[in-house]
Every structure is written in C-alpha cells, then in structure tokens.
Amino acid sequence: MAEPTSARIVVLLGAPNAGKTSLYNHLTGSRFKTVNYPGATVEYSVGKLRAAGEAAHVSAKTQDCHTPEQKPSIEPGTVQIMDTPGIVSIVPRSQDEQVALSALTSLDTVVGTPHKSPHLLVVLLDATQPARHLPLVREVVKAGFPTIVALTMNDLARKKGWDLDSNKLSELIGVPVVEIDGRSGIGVSDLVSGIESLLPESPAPVSVPTSLTDTQIQDNFRWADDVAARAIRNGSYRPASLNPGLGRLDRVALHPVMGLVLFVAVMTGLFWSVFSAAAPLMDLVEGLFGWLGEWAGGHLGDGLLKGLVVDGMISGAGAVFVFVPQIAVLFLVMGLLEDSGYLARGSMIVDRFLVSIGLNGKSFVPLLSGAACAIPAAMAARTIPGKRERYLTLLVIPLMSCSARLPVWGLLLGFLVPPDKPLVGGLALTGIYLLSIVFASAVAVVGGKILKIEPSHTGFQVELPLWRPPTFRTVVVAAWDRTISYVQRAGLVILAISIAFWALMNFPSPDDSAMTMLGKVIAPLIAPMGLDWKVGVALIAAFAAREVFVSALAVIYAVEGAEEATEGLLAAMRGATFEGTSQLVFTPASVAGLIVFFLIALQCLTTVAVMRREVSTRFALGQMAAFVVLAWILATVTVQGLRLVGVP
Amino acid sequence: MDRNISQLGNGQEASIRRVGGHSSLSQRLQELGFTPGATVRLVAKAAFGGAMAFQVRGSTIALRRADAACVEI
C-alpha cells in the first residue's frame, strides 16, 4: 500500500566489489570506507539522495568498536539510497547475501517503510567483467523491479582492450544504462537525473525466485555472453582476450613459493610496523600529557580537585593515549592492504591452512580485522557461507589481539624489555600476535570437536579483484576516522573509570577506602596468578574496556606517588610490593602470566552483545565464560610453571 | 576417468563439459561463471595443494582444489 508521504527507496545492488559503496558515497555525500575486497559491506546503509548540485554534507562513519545501529529511521517524503552487501546471484548462499536479498523482498523488516520491496533498483555492472555480472541484471529485470544499470569501471575495461557502449547495452537489456566512474564521480549527476525521472510513486509488484535451475543459470550466461559481445564497441571480444593471463604482481603474489614468502612478509610487516613506525609519535603524545599534567597541577592548587584532575583524569587517560599512534599505524597499514586488493589473494593462500583447523579461506579477512576490533570482524564473518565454519570463526575472533589490547602490550612489554632495545620490543610484539594465532588455532580445533553442526558443501570460492594502487587520501582519511572513533570511545570509558577509581580509592578515606574492601574480597582469586588485589581490581575494571587496565593501574599507582605517564607507571610497577612485605608484585613471571591472561580473556561486553546477535545468547555467554576461565587457568599455569623453573 | 580443471597445467585452457558435485556447490560454481561451454584457464596454484586461481569470463576466481575438481572438462 502506497502512502504519498512515505519515503521512496532506491536500492543499490550488484556483485561483490562492483563499487556499490563508492557510488553510495557519491549519491548521499557520505564517507564510508571502501575496500578492494569482495564482501567488504555486510550491513545496510541508508542515506538521503543528494539533489544534483547540492553541496556534500559529509558524514564520516566507521564500524569499529560500535554496535551496529538499529533499524535506520528515514525521513518521509524523501528519496533514500540503500547500500547492500554484494550478491553473485538472486538466490543467496551466505548471510551477507541474505542481508542483500531482504532489501529486495522484505524491506519493511529492515527499514522504516511500509513497502516490502524498493521503488527502484540501481544495479552495478562492472565493465571489466560484463558477462559475469549481466545474469544478475537479467534476473532482477525479469522479477519485475524498475531498474537502472550503472556501468562502472569502463576506464579499466578500456585498459584491458574493450569499451562497452552504454546505449547499445540499454537497447539489449531493455532498461536505462548510465556510465559512471565510482572513483571520480563522473556520470553520477546523469545517474541522479535518471533516478529522478524513473522513480515511481509506489513500488512495482515483483516476484523474486527462491531457486534457479541449472538450465536457467546456463541460459542466463548464454544471454550474457551474447549481450556483452554485441555491446562491445571495438569488437575485440573473444574468450581468449577475456582471459589475458596474470599480471606481473600476481605472478609473484600467487606463486606457490614466492606468494607464501610474500604473505608471511606482509603479515610480519603489518605487526612490526605497529611497533616501530609508531615510536616517535608516542614520545610526542607522552610529552604532551606530561606537559598537560604539570600545567593543570600548577593552575589547580593543592587539594581534592588537583588530585581528581591530575592523578585521576590526566594520568589515567595519558597512560592509554600514549599508545594511540600504534593503533593509528595499525589502521593505516590495514587500510593500505584493504585498498590494494591483496586481501583476497591472502585468503586464497591461507585457505589450505585454515581448512586444516576447521575454518575457511574466507575466515582470513574477519580474523585479520579482529586484529583491529572484534566487532566489525564478527560482522565480516557473514561472508563465510558454511554455518559450521562461520561459527568456528566467530568463536576464535575474540582471541585475535585487537587494538584495545595494544596499550596493555605496550605497558607489559615495556616492563619486560629494556627501552634501549627497540628490536627486541618489535620482536616481542610480533611474538604476541603469533601466540594469539596459536591459541586461536588450538581453540578452533577443540571447538570443532564440540560444535554439533554438520559441515556444509559450500567450499571456498573468492574473486580476485584487480590490483589497484591504494589512493593515499582515502587510506589516510579512513585511518584518521577510525583512530578518532577509537579515541572517542575509549576516551569516554577511560575517563569515567579513572574518575570512579580515583573516588573509590579516596573515599571514605585513602587509608580505608571502598577499593581496599573490594580488593580484600578478590585477593584469593588473584593470588594464584602471582598478583595482588590492586592488579585484580584493574583486571576487573578491564571488563569495561581492556585498555582501562592500563589507566586503572596508572590511577592506583599515581596516588602512591608517580607522576608521568608510562615511565612513571613502569617505575611504580617495578617498586610495587605485596602489602606489608618486600616481595615484588610485578616480576617477569607474573607479567608473562598477565600477557597470557589478556591474550585469552574475553573482556569486551560489546563483543558479547554482537556474538549474541550473530549466533545466540548461549553461544555468547558460553564463549565469554570459557575464555575467562581458560585465561585464568593458563595464566596461573604460566606463572607457577615459570617460578618452578627458576624465573622470579 | 573424467578430467577436471584442477588437473590443468599452469596457463592451460579448457572448455567446461559439465559441473558436478553437491547441488549447492555446483550451482554456485555455475553462478560464478563456470558453466558448460565456458573457457577456463588455470593461472595459479597455492602451496601445499591449496586453492587454485582460474580465469573465466574475464574474472579471476580462486577455488579450493576439491571444488575445482567438480568442474569437468
């Protein structure tokens, strides 16, 4: 039923990596991160269509460490553009494809609209592989959707040696075809005029098939081959010219030996750069917070307020924000990888290894993005078609060393490794990432034995996109957005917890505080890990966000006399003893135990919430309980084992 | 014994005769462009019997070796 006031909805549809998100950004003036990997979009985005000539109201958005938003609300009377995950066929075979299909057949359940199907489809057609993308166009037109075809990447097709004629295509398919350039935005205004002139008042009745027969699929391709051949302007379309062999880069990247060497080098380089490239910037941030503390201390006079601001807020936040440059470097390097087209190659190379632990080559990208944050990683797992492989991937994603753990590693490695040995520090951090991969593999194998889901017959298939030199601006802007989003999210939690901590430690009185009482209760639980109640309290606080562990320690020890961010905290840690004794709390063994604890413990409540949504409550709670208990046991074993062999 | 595309040598081309295997897999392979009559070229093999990359209809697609074995030539 059509209401004249309700919004009209245009859905962008197309094969994975066809450029839907680029086009969406142009049409709505958004700044979503685009990625050169098939399956980068796994959720909907909805935005208002920009009128031709209207200035961009740029809205940057990132998915990192945020729970994805609820059902988007849309403004009545407007034209709304909806971005969807890529689909290969009108019959979905994985979660992300199911998400896209819902936009065609049950739109009312995903956005605030009374209609079951959209008013108009814009289907993207990649000119470099027309024959492969045309069958989908045919299926949606047949189903009855009013459709415009947006012809993308014709510039790349010209480089490959052909040129598609959009007028001829339009004549052969029977719907309008507009040529656009997703990177520069050329042609987008023609597309907007096309959308405006074609957009009906209410959606057309459609019938979407729920399955296709082999004959239908083959018939679609026969039609597609024929249309592509006839629409090519310079007439050089032969199967041979379509399969031109590998480029120079792929001859290395996909070589059985060199490809594997390159893969290991790229992954090591990624984690190495986090440590080494960030070092100079970290000194800068550290200096800034030291100066801020002194400045605030000088202006606030002595008293409670100075204690709160200098010891609570500034030292707490400073201890964590020192590590923001590492996080920024991680986002930057991952952005370069995403933009280049390497990720799909990587997943092809590791499929063999992931299969042996019960996962899939398609688990690679979710796991790698788990090194940034488990939340987008869990959503990225929707691209894994087999349920069993998807659940196992979701099981181990929280074991990937995410960016929230970086400040913890920074502090603990700072304790273990002398500062004059940066090479050892870089190696140690790479070692931590390796250790997380070892743990995750072991858990995947054990989880595979427990999980009672039959293996599915989905196999592993991934399209290898064309290589593309990363656009410096896109990558830097995306890394900047993600870093700012991290600072905002972590900053708020850290500030709140630091203030709460400072209050708990100073009331009723510093000698007999609420914190001491809490500490006494948890001391027996923490003793086997070789630590005292103060660290125990910081570990509990880390359930708000892992990096809070660092700021909590800073607040706890700052009260006891230290002033500067990391240096001061490390000095305080080296001097900390069990109450009433001269026995040191932080020793090589107990710090190693802490590293093991943080590698395994699932201390992120947002992750639990997302797992609950992606799988089930039982799965999410079981996963958290198992990882916390396992972390405690293995940390205890590490500490006691090391002490047994003589490590203090 | 039927030949399949996983037995192709590097750079070799062949025309697909039929796509076998479990129905959901064989349909997905066909939807990716591996339909009877299409020309396929093997372009890369990953180490240790891992995935293989094929060119079909102008795209490069990586398939697990066992999946590729369903595409008969």
Q: Mean pLDDT score of chain A, rounded?
A: 86
Q: List low-confidence stretches of chain A.
A: 55-70, 559-563
Outline the biggest β-sheet of chain B.
Answer: 4 strands, antiparallel
Q: Helicity level of chain B, as a percent range? A: 10-25%
Oligomer kind: heterodimer
Write the layout of secondary structure elements.
The complex is a heterodimer of chains A (648) and B (73).
Chain A: E1 8-13, H1 20-28, E2 45-48, E3 79-83, H2 95-105, E4 120-126, H3 130-143, E5 147-152, H4 154-160, H5 166-173, E6 177-179, H6 188-198, H7 214-231, H8 239-242, H9 248-253, H10 258-276, H11 279-300, H12 304-321, H13 324-340, H14 342-356, H15 364-369, H16 374-380, H17 387-396, H18 406-416, H19 422-450, E7 461-463, H20 472-506, H21 514-526, H22 533-541, H23 548-559, H24 566-575, H25 588-600, H26 605-614, H27 617-644
Parallel strand pairs in A: 1-3, 1-4, 4-5, 5-6
Antiparallel strand pairs in A: 2-3
Helix pairs in contact in A: 3-7, 5-7, 10-13, 10-19, 11-12, 12-20, 12-23, 13-20, 16-26, 17-19, 18-19, 18-25, 20-23, 21-22, 22-23, 23-24, 25-27, 26-27
Chain B: E1 13-15, E2 18-19, H1 23-31, E3 39-45, E4 52-56, E5 59-63, H2 65-68, E6 71-72
Antiparallel strand pairs in B: 1-3, 2-6, 3-4, 4-5
Protein described:
The complex is a heterodimer of chains A (648) and B (73). Chain A is mostly helical and 648 residues long. Chain A has a domain at 8-241: P-loop containing nucleotide triphosphate hydrolases (Rossmann fold). Helix content of chain A is 57%, strand content 5%. Chain A contains 27 helices and 7 strands. Chain A has a 6-stranded mixed β-sheet with strand order 2-3-1-4-5-6, with helices on both faces. In chain A, helix 13 runs antiparallel to helix 20, helix 20 (472-506) packs across helix 23 and helix 26 (605-614) crosses helix 27. The longest helix of chain A has 35 residues, at 472-506. Chain B is of the alpha+beta class and 73 residues long. Chain B has one domain (5-72): SH3 type barrels (Roll). Chain B is 18% helix and 33% strand. Chain B contains 2 helices and 6 strands. Chain B starts with 12 loop residues before the first strand and ends with a strand. The relative contact order of chain B is 0.32. At the A-B interface, helix 3, helix 7, helix 8, helix 14 and strand 7 of A face helix 1, strand 3, strand 4 and strand 5 of B. Strand 7 of chain A pairs antiparallel with strand 5 (59-63) of chain B.
